[in-house]
């Protein structure tokens, strides 16, 4: 298989014109304004310092602008990705020898490099289809479970009480036991900022809610000295950008780094491509998942080299870029430059931001991950898919986010198997006065062809469904009319066939032979026929029983019947002549 690796360098700036700056500059400023609060808040999910979120929000868009194929997508910290990252980091820390110093920033950076490597490897192997591996219902359910995990994680930040329990209900029970230790000013302020976010959203404020919360929190913290009153604040943030460096990967458990990177990659890439295709459809921009792997790979390698963490496509930032009218990746570069300026010149303002305000931003983002409308829609469309969405949600809640990824993947595999384990079958017939063949279940006017049964199997015949197909074809054969002389298997929808499937067709041929019915196969693809030949099944069926299409099979049957009748008509005359000669 030929492998190509085309670098989409500067494609996001392709065709750039100077007059686009009138749109890109306001878009970049808006992205920075919306992104700064989340950049400061999201690292707390994984126990990382706030500056890492700012670093990621600076270097990732620059890397994507250089290597990303889209002109509109904006990358950055993502709440769901951060939750998976937190679980992956927990697994790495647990695997480290007791007494080893834990550098959470180094672990996060190593995971970011791992995610970038997985992106590049997937691109080399053209595995962009992995974006579809986690189905939309599975993702919706998984993110709903993740959102509940994020909400529980904000209890300590809202209340100022250290929570040591894990899971969903245990932290709630713990805060009830420790209710006497709740710092009520922190809780009341956090709830007030939470309400402000929802009021801003309900009133469709021109100033984004997170920006409003950050400004109000800073002013109140400066005026009333929140830190002196016991309300936790962010504290000192390093000035300027960090120097480029590699994390000490050799000192970390590489197996846990690899597994954690794979989990973050699957979730961030799957969710990112869903967002990319959604915005691409609105903008009339085709999204190539394989090319996006290069942009996302570079956008994860960059934070890994600058002491940050993995990122994904950001829904909120891309939506802002889209709504303000950004025309190219210049808006992402403007956003990065704005955040650099904020890091240098707003250092004092950032350090006094109250932690409960950031908890309110995280809680609001978490609630936004629960797509109730989509869950209702899935329920209306398919009860089975809704069940799998609930399984994915239950996995993220009950087994932890990292194990929840495994549950989501297993649920996807079960869902795929369930869809293909029982392929639909139907008998085909003719409608008088019309060409072609028709499903006799769907078209009451369709009638069977005398002497011939045509059965369509709508799916591949593989090891896990071969026995079901064999039994179905046997049962259909038993119910055929007594004058049926030929059974034609329409294999036009049989994309794949394995050795177990070949054995099943061989058994069907033998059963039909015992009934005096000739088994024929029509429209079988070349790969499947070659497999039947290697298995010796094609010889037992007979070379004359394979047809390029169903019309050929019917024509062959009619010719054979005509020859048979001609022989029957000639036989009595021959016998009469022989009798006269004997006399």
TrEMBL record:
<feature type="transmembrane region" description="Helical">
    <location>
        <begin position="105"/>
        <end position="125"/>
    </location>
</feature>
<feature type="transmembrane region" description="Helical">
    <location>
        <begin position="27"/>
        <end position="46"/>
    </location>
</feature>
<protein>
    <submittedName>
        <fullName>High affinity sulfate transporter 1</fullName>
    </submittedName>
</protein>
<feature type="transmembrane region" description="Helical">
    <location>
        <begin position="52"/>
        <end position="67"/>
    </location>
</feature>
<feature type="region of interest" description="Disordered">
    <location>
        <begin position="564"/>
        <end position="583"/>
    </location>
</feature>
<feature type="transmembrane region" description="Helical">
    <location>
        <begin position="447"/>
        <end position="466"/>
    </location>
</feature>
<feature type="transmembrane region" description="Helical">
    <location>
        <begin position="355"/>
        <end position="375"/>
    </location>
</feature>
<dbReference type="GO" id="GO:0055085">
    <property type="term" value="P:transmembrane transport"/>
</dbReference>
<feature type="transmembrane region" description="Helical">
    <location>
        <begin position="257"/>
        <end position="276"/>
    </location>
</feature>
<feature type="transmembrane region" description="Helical">
    <location>
        <begin position="182"/>
        <end position="200"/>
    </location>
</feature>
<keyword id="KW-0812">Transmembrane</keyword>
<dbReference type="GO" id="GO:0016020">
    <property type="term" value="C:membrane"/>
</dbReference>
<dbReference type="InterPro" id="IPR011547">
    <property type="entry name" value="SLC26A/SulP_dom"/>
</dbReference>
<dbReference type="Pfam" id="PF01740">
    <property type="entry name" value="STAS"/>
</dbReference>
<dbReference type="InterPro" id="IPR001902">
    <property type="entry name" value="SLC26A/SulP_fam"/>
</dbReference>
<feature type="transmembrane region" description="Helical">
    <location>
        <begin position="137"/>
        <end position="156"/>
    </location>
</feature>
<dbReference type="InterPro" id="IPR002645">
    <property type="entry name" value="STAS_dom"/>
</dbReference>
<keyword id="KW-1133">Transmembrane helix</keyword>
<keyword id="KW-0472">Membrane</keyword>
<dbReference type="Pfam" id="PF00916">
    <property type="entry name" value="Sulfate_transp"/>
</dbReference>
<feature type="transmembrane region" description="Helical">
    <location>
        <begin position="79"/>
        <end position="99"/>
    </location>
</feature>
<feature type="domain" description="STAS">
    <location>
        <begin position="442"/>
        <end position="557"/>
    </location>
</feature>
<feature type="transmembrane region" description="Helical">
    <location>
        <begin position="207"/>
        <end position="224"/>
    </location>
</feature>
<feature type="transmembrane region" description="Helical">
    <location>
        <begin position="387"/>
        <end position="417"/>
    </location>
</feature>
<dbReference type="InterPro" id="IPR036513">
    <property type="entry name" value="STAS_dom_sf"/>
</dbReference>
């Amino acid at each position: 298989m030929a492998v190509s690796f085309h670098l989409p360098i500067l494609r996001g700036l392709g065709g750039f014109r100077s007059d686009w700056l009138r749109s890109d500059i306001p878009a970049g400023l808006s992205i920075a304004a919306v992104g700064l609060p989340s950049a400061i808040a999201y690292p707390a999910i994984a126990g990382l310092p706030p500056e890492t979120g700012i670093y990621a929000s600076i270097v990732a868009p620059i890397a994507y602008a250089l290597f990303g194929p889209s002109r509109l997508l904006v990358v950055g910290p993502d709440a769901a990705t951060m939750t998976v990252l937190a679980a992956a980091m927990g697994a790495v820390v647990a695997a480290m020898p007791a007494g080893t110093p834990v550098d959470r920033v180094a672990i996060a950076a190593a995971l970011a490099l791992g995610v970038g490597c997985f992106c590049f490897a997937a691109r080399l192997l053209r595995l962009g289809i992995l974006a579809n591996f986690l189905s939309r219902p599975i993702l919706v359910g998984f993110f709903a479970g993740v959102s509940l995990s994020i909400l529980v994680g904000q209890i300590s930040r809202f209340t100022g009480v250290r929570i040591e329990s894990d899971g969903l209900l245990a932290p709630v029970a713990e805060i009830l036991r420790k209710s006497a230790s709740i710092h009520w000013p922190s809780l009341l302020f956090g709830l007030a900022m939470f309400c402000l976010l929802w009021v801003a959203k309900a009133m469709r404020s021109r100033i984004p809610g997170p920006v409003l919360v950050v400004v109000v929190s800073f002013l109140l913290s400066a005026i009333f000295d929140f830190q002196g009153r016991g309300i936790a604040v962010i504290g000192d943030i390093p000035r300027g950008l960090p120097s480029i460096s590699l994390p000490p990967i050799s000192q970390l458990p590489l197996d846990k780094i690899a597994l954690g990177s794979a989990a973050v990659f699957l979730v961030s890439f799957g969710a990112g491509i869903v967002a990319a295709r959604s915005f691409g459809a609105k903008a009339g921009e085709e999204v190539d998942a394989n090319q996006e792997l290069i942009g996302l790979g570079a956008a994860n390698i960059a934070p890994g080299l600058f002491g940050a963490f993995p990122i994904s496509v950001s829904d909120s930032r891309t939506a802002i870029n889209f709504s303000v009218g950004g025309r190219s990746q210049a808006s992402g570069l403007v956003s990065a430059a704005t955040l650099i300026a904020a890091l240098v010149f707003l250092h004092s303002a950032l350090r006094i931001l109250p932690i409960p305000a950031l908890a309110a931003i995280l809680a609001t983002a978490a609630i936004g991950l629960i797509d109730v409308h989509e869950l209702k829609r899935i329920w209306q469309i398919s009860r089975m898919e809704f069940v799998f969405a609930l399984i994915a949600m239950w996995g993220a809640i009950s087994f932890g986010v990292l194990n929840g990824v495994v549950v989501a993947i297993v649920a996807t595999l079960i869902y795929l198997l369930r869809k293909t384990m029982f392929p639909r079958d139907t008998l085909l017939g003719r409608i008088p006065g019309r060409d072609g063949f028709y499903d006799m279940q769907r078209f009451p006017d369709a009638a069977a062809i005398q002497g011939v049964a045509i059965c369509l199997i709508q799916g591949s015949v593989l090891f896990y469904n071969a026995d079901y197909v064999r039994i179905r074809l046997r049962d259909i054969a038993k119910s055929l009319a007594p004058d049926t002389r030929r059974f034609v298997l329409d294999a036009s929808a049989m994309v794949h066939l394995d050795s177990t499937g070949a054995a099943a067709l061989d058994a069907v041929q033998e059963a039909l032979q015992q009934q005096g019915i000739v088994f024929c196969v029509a429209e079988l693809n070349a790969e499947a026929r070659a497999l039947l030949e290697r298995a010796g099944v094609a010889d037992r069926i007979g070379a004359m029983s394979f047809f390029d299409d169903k019309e050929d099979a019917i024509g062959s049957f009619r010719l054979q019947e005509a020859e048979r009748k001609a022989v029957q008509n000639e036989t009595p005359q021959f016998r009469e002549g022989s009798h006269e000669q004997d006399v």
